[in-house]
């Protein structure tokens, strides 16, 4: 475990700990480390301007690394340890199953021990139930959930007349199952002429060779693949597609990072699509400056993984602590509800609102396509690969429906609907 903080504020008051409970080793360690770099940079930027302003004086932010090794049980133990160390803010995202377990445990803890409450800030766990039927006052999601991402991708697929045969593949846990289930429904509603020629759910983080899966996709005659795979499960899937010569488009959630462009090379040009809240080739001066500043901070090509939502998460938390005048979890949660974020004054080309009804961050989305870097709309490449992504479709902030019935704390420590 290591706590990091820097900037002029480091000599001010006691640091405010952001406890990152994430897989920093194992099959998805690269994804966890990429998140860590984003959070380090976000906290450095807050600290460089003086830290978090509180009535007793400014306080810096620090990131506490807690490696759950991809284990939900380990994540639960680390969250308990972090709270015992008086951390009020737990950060996690790379696994919806782990997020669900943390939310349930945090609900019980905060009800049982109101003097030591904590919040869970979620930057990537996108199972829709987490802000619907399983919503919690103590959980805030800063990523678009799976249905929001799928809606954007299937709108693009709806307009792609070349696709008549589609294959679905995903990781066999709650998120991957949701992507396949809702993917079928959305395709049926938007493009009933598309034939789904096959689908697979595979063990998460355990497949070393995707060639058998890709061989099935190729044999099916699919012209496109829709997948929510992330981390090495996506990279290895893409590598297998390249190796077998699969002639199909990939509609992905995360195909613009963590080795995917380099794995495909020229075979991915005009074939790999991804959806995100921001990407390096948005094309505005502020977006360019934001991305170039990150690359100066992390100049190694393999460290190139920047997401505006993670920067927004740290900024919104800072804004909420300052509004509450406290780091106490209940006060910060109430301050965060309904909070509007405009990062432009802080050099972040991103905006959004934390919806009070379900704690889902409402923000824009971009559907992008892989291109050779330097071509029109793709000035910057990804991870030094020579390939970048250009915008195909911009989706303004759109509020999805929610079935959340939020239970909120009242003054005596109990909760109410």
TrEMBL record:
Pfam families: Peripla_BP_6 (PF13458). Residues 15-374 form the Leucine-binding protein domain. Gene3D superfamilies: 3.40.50.2300. InterPro entries: BCAA_transport, Leu-bd, Peripla_BP_I. It comes from the Bacteria. Belongs to the leucine-binding protein family. PANTHER family: LEUCINE-SPECIFIC-BINDING PROTEIN (PTHR30483), PERIPLASMIC BINDING PROTEIN OF ABC TRANSPORTER FOR NATURAL AMINO ACIDS (PTHR30483:SF6). This is Branched-chain amino acid ABC transporter substrate-binding protein.
